[in-house]
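G.,

No rush on this.
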Amino acid sequence: MNILAITAVAIIWLLTQAYLFDKYAIVEYWGIKRSWERMILSFWGVFLRLLLAPFYLIVLELDGCFEQCLNRILREGREKR
């Protein structure tokens, strides 16, 4: 399997998770109103997830789950079309 495709999927997923987590969990829970504070939280959320992405990929690849999950997602996508 192409490592660049796996990396791209992982980065897109991590960016999505960072955006949703930062927007809904931290900002709403702490009641942050100022835009610069939101920007800092969003930056650190994305940065930390990108920093941890290789470790997630290594663990999932060693487990053998990542390739199976990706194949299942691709297969389900083809079946829906």
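When you get to it, here's the other one too:
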Amino acid sequence: MSEASKGSNRARWRARLHVVRGGVLSGFVALGLCSFSLFARAALAQPEAEIQQAFGDGHHEEALRGYQELERKVGPSADLYYDQGVVHFELRDWPEAILCFERSLALHPLQDDAEQRLDIAREQLSRELLRSSAGRKLTRGESSDQVYWRFFHAVGPHWPAWGLLLSWNLLFGILLWRRRVQHGGVRDGAAVLAVVMFVVVLLSGSYLIGHSVTVDFRPAIVMAEDALYYESPSVLAKTSKPDDLYRGALVAVIEEREEWLQVQLADGSRGWLYGAVVADVRVDRWPAARTRPAEAVPTL
């Protein structure tokens, strides 16, 4: 065997050895990541089980503190917000329950139980408000902007984007394949498939457009008991207390100017709120929409 042939064999074996080493290293990395994930889950399972035990024993305040501490450790999640909402629901703290269920649905929209509890909490809060003030008029239901935002954010934008890309490529592939097929029945079937792919393209594109249009929508919950409604962003402006402005009310933040927030109420009216009187619904996925830090309302 010539020296050139021996060198070529050694090079091939060296390349194979590098591939094997890379595979073994990748396997160890994957094993380490899986072990870390399992360890993290096991570490969180014990305190969560203790919290659920406290809730089952009727110690709702203790369970609530446990869930809040767990949120500070692991960060926001739909399950943690739902669990906190259930505790507030049992405590009949309807505004806090509404906020938690709204945040849970913002992170994971397809939750029937959270939607049902949210509707019940809103109804109970409305009854309490109407009992305390007989002449009060409350706007029921959600605004159209809120409904559109829920619909176009039910799934992430990557799903309709993948659907648009795949259906678009399949559409042209089917049309090109149909031109080469001579059999009439097959051509008709290809035409039907092309129509279906065209409909999927339209639906996916429309969903992406709706998502982009509603991406700046910022829902929030009023958490201050006696929030004042200003006509302009000034402490000297005229104030009022509309019927739809109460602790637990859902509003849409239109504009933010330092400590001032322009909001739209359920009846469509717009005004300004001062300080941290609202808590944002959108968290985690939208870092700019965090709950604002507490600020003191100025007195004249």
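The first strand starts at residue 219 and ends at 222. The longest helix spans residues 3-56.

Enjoy the weekend,
O.
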